[in-house]
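Re: [help] complex structure
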Amino acid sequence: MARISPVTGHYVTVEVDGLEYKVFYLENGTGQPLICQHTAGCHNHQWRDLLEDEEITANYRVIAYDLPRHGKSDPPENTAWWTEEYKLTADHYANFILALCDALELENPIFMGSSFGGNIALQLAYRRPDRFAAVIPVEGADYSPGFYLDWWQHPHANAAQVCASGTWDLMAPQSPDADRWKTWFYYTQGSEAFKGDLHFYSVDHDLRGKLGDIDTDQCAVVMLTGEYDYLTTPEDGARTASQIRNADFIEMKEIGHFPMSENYPVFAGYLKQALEAIKTKKGASVSS
Amino acid sequence: MTATTETTSTQQWAEAFRTANDQDPEIQAHGKYFTCSYLLDMDDHTVVVRMNAGRVAEISIDPGPLGAPYQFAIRASAATWREFGVEMPAPMFHGIWSASFQRDMRLEGDVLVLMQNLRCITRQIELLRTVGVPV
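Output below.
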């Protein structure tokens, strides 16, 4: 008997900021949408184990998409995109996610992303708390400079190996070899998009001084950060959460910057804590 | 420790490092073009590793000022290197990027050569978790 996964893939056309994208997404489960953003230079397969986690998909419709220019989502269909350097901005990134959620007609979604996905989760909570029940910024911070580096595309080096091995230390040594190497492998595939993604992560994203404006009555915030993350450290996550009223911060032990991909069983325990915290917060918000 | 026994132990470390590298399946699978020389500055000792096609050609312990040329250097305090040389390193001592971003490690010299060999160098540094460090 063939082992066929319940995860299904679809394309949806998304129009945003004058651009047309054919966006590929994977989904499984029923219930409240839990929409998931991969890390910079990567793709939705990082969420492979979450998509097949029966405990979570029994109660949540898990949707993991490929950001345009990543995985099976091409660059824009209606422009000569190759004539401009790719530099992701906070405005376009946020507008895209909102347009995707509208195109999929998602009601009351929870948004979760890691790394530059964690940072955009914070941006979404800041910009459109009315559109999301909650956000789970994973490995996110108010500001994360220092990773917009020319090395990711240096023509004299092997960009695939530099991107993959440059991110290797972001994982914890306790994580299983097979999963760390899968994560490394994904990073060999996205080197051209990686640097442009990091323009958002390390340059355009800056919520310093603005975190107090996030309306957590509308959009709950639960932050998760791994102790082996050298980019957005637990100190960065804790500092960020402390400035958001009623936000939670959970430090994840023995895991790093790609928790869903490098060691899902460990991550799953923390994610379930986060989802429970959101339920509690939203229950309190409704009754108050 | 006397100077003689210290010399012996650093030489033993060099041999252990050479053996670990030359028998490592990952480096041997991917190191066909891993040819370069680099300095490990550990404060108490300096080590120049010269690689040729994925195998250790020479390890020079505490070379003189002109004794062993190298292309790039990885420098940190002895205390930081000792943190690398344990089986399960603590956060931020688990790689050259983490220790450079968050601790006292510095990557110097022709960093392009480091980037060209990053995959194998990353694995070589992890070998310190099994062979330890000479400081």
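The beta strands of chain A are 8-16, 19-28, 32-37, 60-65, 110-114, 134-138, 220-226, 248-252.
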